[in-house]
Amino acid sequence: MTRARHHWVLPTSLVVALALSLLPMPQVLLPLRPYWVGLVLAYWVIEDPDRVGLGFAFLVGLAGDLVSDGLLGEQALRLVVMTFILQRFRARLRFFPLSQQALAVGGLMLNDRIVTAAIHMVLREPALPSAFWFSPLTGMLLWPLIFLLLDALRLGSWRRR
Asked: Which UniProt keywords apply (predicted)?
């Protein structure tokens, strides 16, 4: 199967990630919500860098800003920073075992939280709760599942039997 036959996977996965980020959750579980858009975009930056770059990350971030109730441009900035770091270390990350990739993605999600906290501090927004820092752990734990699912869809390996 060629990449052209699975051109729908990239936009569909991002729309699903945006939808997952909007799903209501109980207040007690809210701090554990992973940054779905960041995780899906991280996969695409690692696996298809020809199609997904800084400009694409900026546009996806703006779309995320428009559908959420956050500051306009916040997710765009966060995703551009994340994409820049991923592009810089892509050659190494791509060949890590999945467990090491999960640790690296956890660090990337932690960096995303630091960027978010810095944005809120600079704009004098209310301080983020301490439970806010649990989300990178959830993203790190979900990374292997997200990676394997998107890889199967992208490569069409779910059809082979």
From this structure: Cell inner membrane, Cell membrane, Cell shape, Membrane, Transmembrane, Transmembrane helix
Output the six-digit token pair for 76: 């765009």
Distances (CA, A) of 69 to 7, 21, 63, 73, 152: 30, 11, 11, 11, 33
Residue 110 maps to a domain: yes
User: Is 23 contained in some domain?
Assistant: no
Residues 5-40 pLDDT 10s: 568 899 999 999 999 999 998 988 888 999 999 999
Q: How far apart are CA 40 and CA 114, in angstroms?
A: 19
Q: Is residue 160 part of a domain?
A: no
Q: Say if residues 84 and 70 touch (Cβ distance below 8 Å).
A: no
The CA–CA distances, whole Å, from 76 to 2, 38, 80 equal: 31, 10, 6
The parent domain of residue 116 ranges over 8-15+31-155
Say if 73 falls within a structural domain: yes
How many helices (H) does the chain have, and how many strands (E)?
Answer: 6, 0
Name the domain count of the chain: 1
For residues 102 and 93, what is the distance between their CA atoms, to the nearest angstrom?
10
With the C-alpha atoms ordered 100, 106, 107, 108, is the resulting torsion angle positive or negative? positive
Q: Which residue in this structure is represented by tokens 């990676």?
A: 147
